[in-house]
Amino acid sequence: MYWETKADTHNTLVANSMPRNRFEQIHRFLHFNDNTKIDKNDKLYKIRPLTDHINKLSTDCIQPLGKYFSMDEAMEPYYGRHSLKQFIWGRPIRFGFKFWCLTTSNGYLIKFDTYAGAGDKIEGKTLGSSVTEKLCVNFIPKDSVVFVDNYFNSLPLLETFTNNNINCVGTIRSDRIEKAPLPELKKEKRGTHPTLHEDKTNITLTRWHDNSQVTLATNSKDENIYKTRGVCKGWSKQERASVTVEQPSVVNFYNKGMGGVDHFDQIRGLYRSRIRSKQWYWPIFRFCLNGAVVNMWFLYRYVDPDIGLVDFIRRIVLAILSSPPLGPNTGPKSKSNSKVPGEIRYDNKDHWIDKNETQRRCAKCGKCSKFVCLKCNVGLHPDGCFRQYHTK
Asked: Where residue 126 sits, what CATH number does that domain have?
């Protein structure tokens, strides 16, 4: 509808960027790999080059990576038929593709992998622990801290992390503590927290009783995490008021560092691209696209801390759609093309000057010129004006 001539739907910026048929042709035939060389052992062969490329860019663009990381899962909606589509009851997105995500604690996506079945398991470890080991070991810096929930955490994973000088803090399921003598706390006083520590593997188990009991496991070398304690606020049904509850420091440390993936997923869902397609790999492409935009926003805020996500997306769209059209243009011409966005004008890439058949006004000095910049699509004099126009 952006290409219609009706006043309520026509969008000049979109209509001038490319013809409608060109857009529909790209949408219909968009591919990311050679279909004549399909690897039957790789269920994600069609989209593999794109996911590898996004992972590489996400890692290269942030140095250093930092010290605190969060490991969790994310979902992208998909309602078609495919062997990798998941159904997870109780989630905001119940049908779709599942992604294993490794982020910094503030929500920057560093690395991700698409769930491709239980074949990714390492012998002796659960699926969650196997995925965590593959994404973290030999990748994140030594002495870093990884926060995981009870789906990913296990004692064999903590032993592997200890051997690779990686610290891990996370909740753990009661059936994964290998019969460690931790008492049941359901009838104990609120705030009770017994702790077990093993010197050989440097693994510490802490069970804390709040509204319900929760068990945490860590291999951290910092003794203050599991030997000290603090307090937190909690609601008491008996007293009908807020009360102070004793809390081990490891719980507070876990709560501060665990929400990285959830924060990334929340931001990605605010302005998610909703263009649909019949191809099964289109949702994975959407995840890569939206995830890359969120990462760029995180990086851009080092320069402009006050810019919001929607304003940043608008800048990206204006920079892309204001460039020369991809095909013959038959729609109404936009006056906005005379104002080239700074992201294009000063990027110092692919600006070439060429002779034009007719004269045009120079965008720098205002005099007539028979030369144009092919990328900016504006008239310029080759001697002086061209260089000055593309220099801040």
From this structure: 3.90.350
